[in-house]
Amino acid sequence: MSEDSTTLILGVDLGGTKILTAVTDSQGRMLSRDHSVTPARKGHEAVVQSILESTHRALGQANAAVSALTVVGIGAPGLIDPERGIVLASPHLPGWRNVRLRDMVEETLGKKTFLINDANAAALGELYFGAARGVRNFIYITLSTGIGGGIVIDGKIYSGAIGAAGEVGHMTIDDKGPLCNCGNRGCWETLASGTALAREARQRIEEGIRTSILQHAEGDVAKVTAQAVHSAATQGDSLARELIAQTGYYVGVGLANLINIFNPELIVIGGGLSNIGDILLKPAFKVAEERAYKEAFRAVRFASAGLGRDSGVLGAAAFALCEIRKLSCE
Ligand SMILES: [Zn+2]
Fold first, then answer.
1. Distance of alpha carbon 102 from its chain centroid, rounded?
2. Do 156 and 173 touch, CB atoms closer than 8 A?
3. What is the pTM of this model?
4. CA-wise closest residue to 249 among 296, 308, 200
5. Three-state DSSP state, 30
6. How far apart, in whole angstroms, are the C-alpha atoms of residue 330 and residue 326?
7. Roughly how many angstroms between the first and final C-alpha of the chain, as a whole number?
8. Are 200 and 213 a contacting pair, CB within 8 Å?
9. Are 122 and 297 in contact (CB under 8 A)?
């Protein structure tokens, strides 16, 4: 993107548990940032109010007024219709159906606003400013409480018929597997996400297997998280390492599908679960190599998300700037 010192963009990364708001320039430099909690269960009006409060704090830190903003970009989880600016449905935002999020923010701030799926935003963040700069064909995946994805083909997000493409976390891996938030069974994210890892750990603990995982969860099986399993694994707990390797196996099964379908140059892997590193990803890459076409596997590189947790907010901001300028931003 071309440099322009007068451009100020507000990026918002709306998640099921937290909101990250940032004021950025046209080069993806963050001038300020604000974190807050998503009041997801209080409904969409409370969430919009929290976005606005966070916006004013971020603007204050950047010594900027709302009037100085060029445009606003919001990344939100779930099925998004970017054309109409609507959250169609979102497992992470209970009760949200056909919410006019773009217009609600635009009407209150009086600034042109654009809405995009959060994982697609993160893919754009990585494309413009992160690990995928200069790459024409890649897939971004985020391994987190769920699994999100963004598919970039020929330098553009592939959004599908209604903007719902890239929901890689809901490809079926095991048709009789665990029930998913989406209503299906055995989706990738029911087997290869942080939620899946924690669920498997709780089950094995309840079966009576000896493990130090509980010590990382205040001794309460209900408090076992992926983080607790990771902590136990770093101290050598054999069950924790086995469960992470099993999660990595399923990560690899999904990667093999993506490699065979898209033949990407690059797969960028982000999300909190990916911070576990080698004990998760080595088994994943091994399984992907075993299951994908050899030629396609040899052509793909894997990279960690270069922007970490900021890829979504920077991508949402960049998306908005590209849209308002009618640029391809390539
Ligand atoms: Zn699903």
1. 19
2. no
3. 0.92
4. 200
5. strand
6. 12
7. 7
8. no
9. no
Of the candidates 90, 109, 139, the one whose C-alpha atom is nearest the C-alpha of residue 12 is: 109
Q: How far is the CA of 179 from the centre of ligand 1 (A)?
A: 8
Written as one letter, the residue type at 153 is I
pLDDT in tens, the chain (330 residues): 555 668 999 999 999 889 999 999 999 999 999 999 999 889 899 999 999 999 999 999 999 999 999 999 999 998 999 899 999 988 788 889 999 999 999 999 999 999 999 999 999 999 999 999 999 999 999 999 899 999 999 999 998 988 889 999 999 999 999 999 889 999 999 999 999 999 999 999 999 999 999 999 999 999 999 999 999 999 999 999 999 999 999 999 999 999 999 999 999 999 999 999 999 999 999 999 999 999 999 999 999 999 988 999 999 999 999 999 876 565
CA of 215 to the centre of ligand 1 (A): 31
Cα distance between residue 2 and residue 26, in whole Å: 7
Q: Is-contact 36 71, C-beta < 8 A?
A: no
Measured in angstroms, how far is the CA atom of residue 36 from the centroid of ligand 1?
A: 27
Give residue 94 CA to ligand 1 midpoint distance, Å: 15
- In the reported structure, the alpha carbon of residue 79 is separated from the centroid of ligand 1 by a whole-number distance in angstroms of 12
Q: How far apart, in whole angstroms, are the C-alpha atoms of residue 311 and residue 164?
A: 20
- Tell me how many degrees the CA angle 149-150-155 measures, rounded to the nearest 5: 160
Nearest residue to 312 (alpha-carbon basis) of 74, 135, 98 = 74
Q: Determine the Cα–Cα distance for residues 12 and 53; give it in Å rounded to an integer.
A: 12
Structure tokens at 198: 């924690």
Other beta carbons within 10 angstroms of residue 181's beta carbon come to 16
Domains in the chain, please, with CATH?
Answer: 9-118+309-325 (3.30.420.40), 131-305 (3.30.420.40)
Read off the amino acid at residue 139.
Answer: I
CA distance 197 to 251: 11
What sign does the dihedral 86-91-92-95 (CA atoms) show? positive
CA of 11 to the centre of ligand 1 (A): 28
